[in-house]
Amino acid sequence: RRVLAVIDARMREVYAGRFALAADPISGGAIARALGQEIVAPPAMLVLPDTGVWHVAGTGLDAEAGLLQARLAAQPGLQLAAMWPEALPRAADIARLAVAACARGDTVAPE
């Protein structure tokens, strides 16, 4: 599955990232792999996926009076499997990702 995550950044912008969900052999669950760079942009300037089936999650869907929702709905070739405008990351989600990342050796030096 592919996911477009959009979180309201305030100041008329959203944090956005595209991800693909894949099986994680360490945890046995799913892990999100980034499909490019995460960005901060106004909803009107965000480059949308142009084709395929996408799940869209995050408070950025309601930013700027729902502009992003309207743009996604009007995008030809894009199929929206689901939209969750109330979705936000939780600390427990981040902790699970960190455990799996450490087990894979995906770490960086603290400096």
Quick take:
Helices cover 23% and strands 37% of the residues. With 111 residues, it is of the alpha/beta class.
Features:
111 residues, globular
Describe the structure.
This protein is α/β, with parallel strands linked by helices and 111 residues long. The chain has helices at 63-74, 91-104; strands spanning 2-10, 13-23, 30-34, 39-41, 52-57, 78-84. The protein is built from 2 helices and 6 strands. Strands 1, 2, 3, 4, 5 and 6 form a 6-stranded mixed beta sheet that branches. Strand 5 (52-57), helix 1 (63-74) and strand 6 form a beta-alpha-beta unit. It is globular. The mean pLDDT is 91.
Helix content: 10-25%
Question: Runs with pLDDT <50, length 5+?
Answer: none
State which percent range the strand residues make up. Answer: 35-45%
Helix-strand pattern, N to C?
A: EEEEEHEH
Largest sheet data: 6 strands, mixed
Shape, per Cα inertia axes: globular
What is the number of beta strands? 6
Quaternary form: single chain
Structural class: alpha/beta
Mean pLDDT: 91
The span between the termini is: 35 Å
Radius of gyration: 15 Å
What is the overall number of helices?
Answer: 2
